[in-house]
From TrEMBL:
This is Nucleoside diphosphate kinase. GO terms for molecular function: ATP binding; metal ion binding; nucleoside diphosphate kinase activity. Belongs to the NDK family. Its EC number is 2.7.4.6. The keyword Thylakoid does not apply. Its main location: other. The lineage of its organism: Eukaryota, Metazoa, Chordata, Craniata, Vertebrata. It comes from Sinocyclocheilus anshuiensis. It is found in: Cell projection. The keyword ATP-binding applies.
Length: 145
């Protein structure tokens, strides 16, 4: 497996947008070579965020999380990228997005799907099929050998 055969859903959270980190974050996915197939700036309503985080609905921080995530625009993206995010900001290593830009677990600037299954659910929640591009990226053969 070349590392980019599955799709993942990535969102730059409202704090990442407000802190002016959109370009910095996209740059990292782009320079790594992951293929971007969908992207939009969207102010999500609380209903969408409740669905997105439905697995966490019984956690005490859920209402605050839903309010925070719908408090400003987010950048929703879909990449061919089968590396899934797994660490909170405190455990994130230097060199990772959260490790380099965040100091605590609540304001952690980026969401990434944690499995193939959640990626598919999240992509379907955030994007219509026609919003997802199907194209060949010419650098793929140079990245994958
Ligand atoms: N979160 C929070 N309070 C907490 C733990 C998490 O507000 O005590 C937020 C945080 O923004 C996190 C999101 O809830 O990114 C989802 O939590 P999860 O444990 O799934 O973290 P992630 O998968 O994003 O690392
Ligand atoms: Mg999670």
């Amino acid at each position: 497996m070349s590392g980019n055969e599955e799709r993942t859903f990535i969102a730059i959270k409202p704090d990442g947008v407000q802190r002016g980190l959109i370009g910095e974050i996209i740059k990292r996915f782009e320079q790594k070579g992951f293929k971007l197939v969908a992207m939009k700036l969207i102010q999500a309503d609380e209903d969408l965020m409740r669905q997105h985080y439905c697995d966490l609905k019984d956690r005490p921080f859920f209402p605050g999380l839903v309010r925070f995530m719908s408090s400003g625009p987010v950048v929703a993206m879909c990449y061919f990228c089968d590396i899934f995010l797994g660490s909170n900001a405190i455990d994130s290593k230097p060199g990772t997005i959260r490790g380099d830009f965040c100091i605590q677990v609540v304001r952690n600037i980026i969401h990434g799907s944690d499995s193939v299954e959640s990626a598919n659910t999240e992509i379907n929640l955030w994007f219509k099929p026609e919003e997802i591009c199907d194209y060949t990226k010419c650098q793929d053969s140079w990245l994958n050998g």
